[in-house]
Amino acid sequence: MTRLKAYLRPPQPSPPTTSASASASAATKSFNSTINRLSAEGFHRDVLFTFSSMLRSHTPPDAHTYPSLFKACTFLNRFSLGISLHQRVITDAYSSDSYIASSLINFYAKFGRVENAQKVFDLMPERNVVPWTAMIGCHSRCGNSDRAFRMYNLMRYEGIQPSSVTVLNVLSGVTELCQVECLHACAILSGSDSDLHLVNCMLDLYGKCGRVEAARVLFEAMVCRDIVSWNSMVSGYARSGNFKEIMWLFKKMRGEGVVPDQQTFGGLLTCSDSVQIDVEFGTLILGQIITGGLELDAPMATSLVVLYSKYGNFVSAFKIFEWVAEKDVILWTSIIAAFVQNDNARKALVLFTRMLDSGLISSTATIATVLSACAKVGSRLLGMSVHGYLLRQGMPVDIPVQNSLITMYAKCGLLRQSLAIFDGMNERDVVSWNAIVATYAQNGDLREALCLLNKMRLMVQRPDSITVVSLLQACASTGALQQGKWVHTFIIKSLSQPSIMIDTALVDMYSKCGDLKTAHRCFHHMPEHDVVSWSIIITGYGSHGMGEMALNLYTEFLGTGIQPNHVIFLSVLFSCSHNGLVSEGLSIFQSMIEDFGIKPELEHRACIVDLLCRAGRLKEAYKFIKTMFSDPTVDVLGILLDACRMKGDAELGELVARDIMKLQPVCAENYVQLAHSYASMNRWEGVGDAWMQMKALGLRKLPDGGWDIVGNLLQQQGVDVYIDVSCLSTKPTRLPTSDLMLCFDALLVAEVGEGQGLVYDYYDSTCPYVEEIVKREMFSIFAADATAPAAFLRLLFHDCQVQGCDASILLQSEDSELQSSRNFGIRKLEEIARIKSVLEDECPMQVSCADIIALAAREAVSISGGPSIQIPLGRKDSLTSSSQQADAHLPSPSIDDVDRFLQIFMGKGMDLEESVAIIGAHTLGGGHCRNIVSRLSNPKPTDQMDQGFQLQLRLSCPTLIPTNNVTVVPNDLTTTIFDNQYYRDAAIGRGLFPIDSSISRDARTMAIVAQFAVDKMYFFQTFSSAFLKLASTGVLTGDEGEVRLDCSLVN
């Protein structure tokens, strides 16, 4: 405290003279005037800069200075600075000032520190209405309405007369009718019932509590009303679904000359469920908004987007979204959710990318929606990137987000991660249990899914229809009839409410398990049938060779009067196709078009192609494709190509193959299929031609089947997106990006770096899953500690810098590298040891500690938002470690000599741009106070640092600190995110270290810093190349070194 006071309150020379005191007082008043003016105008950053100037000029602040400072800290989210200012308030003996105390209470309330705010309040020797009002508002805003109400009563008991603002603060957190009525009575007794703002608040609360009649009485008694009064009444009636009264209010508004505003229509739209507003009425409201000259703001647009999406009008919903100039996060979330619900997850991800580019910070609702989109496209890369974004932003992970994470990882086949999220939940709802049960059910682990159902019941969590449907679907997909019967018994005993969804799932389960008799009995006992249940039973008979029965059921369905849709016709056509009912299938297809006016979709037409191919009518199938498909898909042509192979029709097969090549000329899978077709017909010259064409086009088939390599391009199969990887094997160039998928701007696959005895397939035969294991373990580490990426990246840099990347930094001895002061603050050594232990269980004595460090650092870059870098492996561990070597080769944090840094990194084969990229790689991390204090205490004239940033560092790291201080000072979000923020900061004097200032001014590096600052992709490419060179230079390979059993000890 003494040291902090020494900085924040510079010592005065000697007792000042009267004239000096008067001068100081005048200066203080002048600064206060400026600070208060800037605060009133909303220039909160300038408020802090002015206060910094005030301190430098040795002008003492007074009680009038601090309220504006705490307000600035609140708006700028500077909690640590506010704490420092509170310390100064205490040392300057201003704690008892009521306005300062009220500002402190509001400050702590903003950051959710209610107990701190209460402590400030309790320590006040005297309290007037101002701190009472602030403290009551603090509890109300934090959701503790009972505490706020008790404090209100205590305030009155102590003889403090509440103001109308006090009552408003209590009302802001009230949810119970009795409390509203009590406060209403208090307002009448105190004479505050004439306050318009207070009465409007009570109108709104009466409506929310379902007492719209009481609100009407209060409304009619009002002498003066404003538009807020009218809007409160409209919202109240809208919540109760009283459309007649709403129309009466609109009529009366016009009669009194009151013009509706955005909130009037918004209040009606937000309650569209209770009023049963349809799209037509929504369009009418939109017309009123436009003709009335009102601006379509974000809240109204959100309501309209939700309304149009609810009725399936997504085109109009998107048009409304695009009309809004100032979009908020709620509007973005609603349109993203609309596309997810419309099975257009890719478009939803594109919109999420646009939202991030607009500078908005996502809400947890946005993240939950985007994770649902990732689950639908089944992309683990996208899902993990969104999860990483969630962690880096430090967002609260609520139950809906955790549920979405469980589902996303399950859909991507990552059961371990799903279970880790579930096990880490402090609270679970039925959706959480459903998600984890569905996770195991969908991945075929029916035994574990049933165990979880039992655990769910033991936790007194009642399973619902979603739970049992997931289990029935698992039984259906695995043919587990006995387990399905057990679930059926559980449904009869535990779920009394009938559900068409459960009944349909039972029919589906028994059908797929081959028990058609029970399936038909379940279908017959259903209280009602819909199109889906009819489709299930028809498909069940059709798939078991009972096509005639399927057609009889279709005839029975037509007699029910239910309007058929595309689903029922797909089931019937499928049944015809699998039972050789060619004429019946063609007839039903024609009836679908002519009798029911249903336009055949791709699936229906593909069924007809399959129907004709199974019957051997290949030429007729080809003619059908040419007639019914304006743009045939590869999958449909593939059906015909396989049929040609089976029937031995080489001529037609070659014709179809050429059509496929025209659609996707650079898809390796097509050439492989063509080669197989030729081989089945013993046309070996065709097989050779197919492989030669692949080679001529530079195509290679990747093992996972997800991507094709086309020369220097990666193409995702089925998606017209190409990613240039040649930039990493030569001088980096700008990487073209696509907005089709969220993470394409960060997906860099580097196929360079082999050499020095390192190869990409080093562990293919000895430990083939090493990279997957490291990725899995690192992900769990990052999920628990968002700052972990910084530690692993720094560990690699410090290891490679001394003796090459040989894990020498992990060796423990009296003279190890860790003893060097340059390795101060190195973390996560124990995690490397833990990963090594896991790999030893999987592949004993195969994977070196050096390779583990390199793979861990690669994952650190990727999961924290940086590029994905493919690295060669085969490093061996060193036998020696020396603190003297570390002292000699690791640069000091106080060095500002650009030449020294360039010498270090260019000595490893890097060019100038790569060296600057590596220098900036400590964007993923922060600085320890002990490494920054010398820069703050003895700044060089050439060291240009932003004054506001300098003040922030001084408050975080007081100059009089021990040299072993381990406090980490982050720069922006750099402890958790890998991006080009470092270069933007360096360019404006906000870098942590002296070298940050130097490279932004040096003639050789200044332009590179500026380019990296504005072009993240260019930085990513350059860094990827630099990372490979750093991790691959001077390594031990072959017979050099060893593979340690324990990373901290030589064998």
UniProtKB/TrEMBL annotation:
Required cofactor(s): Ca(2+); heme b
EC top class, as a word: oxidoreductase
One example of a Gene Ontology biological process annotation: hydrogen peroxide catabolic process
Binding positions (Ca(2+) 1): 799, 802, 804, 806, 808, 817
Record carries keyword Phosphoprotein: no
Residues reported in the UniProt entry to bind Ca(2+) 2: 923, 972, 975, 979
Catalytic activity field: 2 a phenolic donor + H2O2 = 2 a phenolic radical donor + 2 H2O
UniProt: substrate binding residues: 891
Domain Plant heme peroxidase family profile: 757-1051
Active site: 798 (proton acceptor)
Family under the similarity heading: Belongs to the peroxidase family. Belongs to the PPR family. PCMP-E subfamily.
NCBIfam families referenced in this protein's UniProt entry, alphabetically: PPR
Listed name of the protein: peroxidase
